[in-house]
Design brief:
Layout lengths: L1 H36 L5 E5 L2 E8 L4 E5 L7 H5 L2 H6 L3 E5 L17 H15 L5 E5 L2 H11 L6 E5 L9 H6 L7 H6 L2 H18 L8 H4 L2 H4 L2 H21 L10 E6 L8 H10 L4 E5 L6 H4 L1 H12 L1
Parallel strand pairs: 3-4, 3-5, 5-6, 6-7, 7-8
Antiparallel strand pairs: 1-2, 2-4
Helix pairs in contact: 4-5
């Protein structure tokens, strides 16, 4: 009996290992095909040994766009915000480290402050002097870190759908294991990509609610690029850094000495507008707040014209 159980256990372990290996090969091939079908659309700048991918268009006062978690710099193109701002401004949209085609080496912790320091050096390398920085979702933390840690490098902030105060985040707890060495590496090539494909569309729909997913979103932002193992790690790490970063920044917001315009959707299912956008506005007396009643988390799709106008006003 024990021999039979041992044999079955060995067979089960061998079968599980074979399935994991086959899944890893499938995941790797999907990532390679995604990169072949969707090559970089912009240029690269190397800063501190890190290659950052960016797209640039237009002439005039500079405006920098920093995207949130999950997505790529194409998010700003799909929303129409990039093209609107390029009419009269030098607009630069970056893939944040680990997203799209920007590198994310494992020799440092990629907190919002670490990313901000990298971008400040990239600005200097590219001759981007005192830009208005537009951050969406997680990108608002990088924008705030730039303004707090590198104040001379920023002229003003547009913060859209941001997370500004620490609170319990179930999503961060669920994705945390993916950020771990060894275990996370195994998960990113096996169970996580499979599960992510099952829930991805629903997750995107929740981000856009109450509006439908924008036409062209899935065409411009390749799902397979966003679900590559490296980007899944970046997503998980950023989710883990979100609460500590907000806890670190909340006592420093009154240090801000630059114009800030805050945007939020009143029906945001990802970040509470009252607990974050409205609270930050109350703490920054000179800030402006725009709450969009019929918008969710993806406010830059709901009101690209208003956000572009606000950024242009600060860039003068």
């Amino acid at each position: 009996m024990k021999t039979n159980m041992s044999t079955r256990g060995t067979a089960l372990a061998a079968g599980t290992a074979a399935l994991a290996a086959a899944t890893a090969v499938w995941v790797r091939r999907k990532a390679q095909r995604a990169q072949r079908d969707h090559p970089p659309i912009g240029r690269f700048v190397e800063v501190d040994g890190v290659r950052l991918h960016f797209v640039e268009r237009g002439e005039g006062p500079p405006i920098v766009l920093l995207h949130g978690n999950t997505v790529l710099l194409q998010d700003f193109i799909a929303s129409g915000l990039f093209d609107r701002l390029a009419d009269g401004h030098r607009v630069v949209a970056f893939d944040r480290p680990g997203f799209g085609y920007s590198e994310r080496p494992r020799d440092r912790l990629w907190t919002p402050s670490a990313q901000a320091a990298l971008f400040a050096r990239a600005f200097a390398r590219l001759g981007i002097a005192e830009p208005v920085v537009v951050g969406h979702s997680w990108g608002t933390l990088v924008a705030l870190a730039l303004a707090l840690d590198e104040p001379a490098s920023v002229r003003g902030l547009i913060l859209a759908s941001g997370y500004y105060y620490p609170s319990a985040r179930v999503d961060a707890l669920l994705t945390a294991p993916v950020a771990l060495p060894v275990l996370g590496d195994l998960m990113r090539y096996t169970v996580t990509p499979v599960f992510a494909r099952m829930v991805f569309r629903k997750m995107v729909e929740a981000m856009f609610t109450p509006l439908p997913v924008a036409a062209g979103f899935f065409e411009l932002l390749s799902r397979e690029l966003m679900l590559r193992p490296g980007q899944l790690r970046a997503n998980a790490e950023d989710a883990a850094f979100m609460v500590p970063a907000a806890a670190k920044f909340r006592d420093r917001y009154r240090e801000l000495r630059l114009p800030v315009h805050i945007f939020a959707g009143e029906q945001d299912l990802v970040v509470s507008p009252d607990a974050h956008a409205a609270r930050l506005h109350a703490e920054l007396p000179d800030s402006e707040l725009t709450l969009l009643p019929d918008a969710g988390h993806m406010v830059h799709y709901a009101a690209p014209g208003q956000i572009a106008a606000a950024a242009a006003s600060l860039a003068r």
